[in-house]
Amino acid sequence: MVRHTGEAPTQAFRFDTADGLRDDVFSQLAAGVATSKHPLHLMAVATSGTDGRAEARYVVVRAFDPTARSLSFHADARSPKIADIGRDERLTLLLYDPDTRLQLRIAARATPHRDDERAFAGWISTAPTSRIGYAQPFAPGEALDANAVWNPPSEVSLDDPEARSRFVWIDCEIDTIDALWLNSTGNLRALLTWTGESWAMRRLGP
Ligand SMILES: Cc1cc2nc3c(=O)[nH]c(=O)nc-3n(C[C@H](O)[C@H](O)[C@H](O)COP(=O)(O)O)c2cc1C
Prior knowledge:
Layout: H1 18-34, E1 42-48, E2 54-60, E3 63-65, E4 70-76, H2 80-87, E5 90-97, E6 102-113, H3 117-125, H4 128-132, H5 161-166, E7 167-181, E8 188-194, E9 199-203
Antiparallel strand pairs: 1-2, 1-5, 3-4, 4-7, 5-6, 6-7, 7-8, 8-9
This protein binds flavin mononucleotide.
Flavin mononucleotide (FMN) binds next to strand 2, strand 4 and helix 2.
């Protein structure tokens, strides 16, 4: 596929059956995880903030498990999003690929892992450059003096106890996927819902 040219999308999506759309959406999510330049490598994660206002931020999608129906990311335990998740596990995940013109608005529930086996597996799979952020003394969003300085180390050991204890791996179990495909021959939209056993699909007005 030609990317970022503004040309008409070459990828077609099946909106006629739940399984067809599920397969198409899942293959896009898998491609997004696998390729750092892919638009679906990033997702906006929306939480409910302390005063009820929606909060959103981009994260890198670190894993997609079609069997568990989960997308995963990692974050600093000190970051406000982790407190948001602690108060309310419900997330909206938003992804868009301008090349295929597919938007995915996903309702999910978050399970954060810290200091457990899953967190450790995530920690050791993390790129050395990603680990450095977990060594920073400043909490994400903390107010700093204008002259605050931190010189990041060139690398952070896998055994660094502080950095490792701040690392949280978050699995987001998908409940519904609202798929919107902007298509020159007619926009298409459908809601995929996990029933507990299979995926059900309902077409929606775009
Ligand atoms: C391209 C990009 C990728 C990012 N990836 C992550 C990530 O994987 N995990 C993360 O916690 N924050 C990531 N961030 C930073 C978040 O967007 C956010 O600024 C930070 O985590 C603080 O969020 P919070 O204050 O809402 O908790 C990324 C930001 C950008 C711009």
